[in-house]
Amino acid sequence: MAYITIGIFLLACGLMFWFFPDTSILEYGYAEMDGFFSLVPYLFMFLISAITMRSFAEERKEGTYVLLATRPLTDMQIILAKYLACMVLVLFSLVPTLIYYYSISQLGLPKGNIDTGAVIGSYVGLFLLGSAFASIGVFASSITKNQIIAFAVAVFLCFFTYSGFDSLSRIAAFEGIESFLMNFGINEHYQSISRGVLDTRDVVYFLTFVALFLWLTKLAIGGRKW
């Protein structure tokens, strides 16, 4: 399943970044990857939700979680093992896209005419974004036995936490607290890191976000055990 999911993700990235006229870098004409880094978060919502939807839902449906829970492991050890396994797959899905950086670097005039610092910052931002989405996906999988429901809940939560707060900040009723609402959303911090500046506030935000959803997962698992 991981091979198929990652394969579809890379195929979608390749088609959108190189072939489809509306998003193609060849049509855009500038040696930069901003289009790719603005596109991937929306693909990540589906990729990571598909990877994580089986984490606990499948175990509970098949009854194998009982065997896992009776091992000499704490709930948090089980959750972290599943979460880190998902993060390895996210990392494997990002590594092949480095070929895009090399290709654009070679196509630029002159060769190597690309902002490497911004690309590195954007990849760090993508990895942190993937870590946040993976924590949401693991949590969604822990609250249901149905993989489809877990997938749908994860996609919705990923979309809302990524762009929902930005949309709320534009509502007239929330005038005056726009920046406060935007700081709650992932997009604001992701864009900040993508500019090539690694601010500790953004890193702390992502670490806190991941810790919050893993803690919620522990509550869901612990409550079911009782």
Structural features:
226 residues, mainly alpha
Short description:
The chain is 77% helix and 0% strand. It is mostly helical.
Written overview of the protein:
By secondary structure, the chain is mainly α. It has one domain. Helix content is 77%, strand content 0%. The protein contains 12 helices and no strands. The protein has helices at 2-19, 25-28, 34-52, 57-62, 65-69, 75-94, 98-107, 116-142, 147-169, 178-184, 186-194, 200-225. α1 (2-19) packs parallel to α6, α6 (75-94) runs antiparallel to α8 and α9 (147-169) packs antiparallel against α10 (178-184). The longest helix has 27 residues, at 116-142. The protein is globular. The two termini are 32 Å apart. The model has no long low-confidence stretch (mean pLDDT 84).
Extended strand count: 0
Q: Tell me the Rg in angstroms.
A: 19 Å
Q: How many helices does DSSP assign? A: 12
Task: Work out the count of structural domains.
Answer: 1
Taken as a percent bin, the fraction of beta residues is under 5%
What does the overall shape look like?
Answer: globular
Biggest sheet, in brief?
none
- Judged by helices, strands and strand pairing, the structural class is mainly alpha
Secondary-structure element sequence? HHHHHHHHHHHH
Mean pLDDT across the residues is 84
Helix content, binned percent: over 70%
Spans of 5+ residues with little confidence (pLDDT < 50)? none
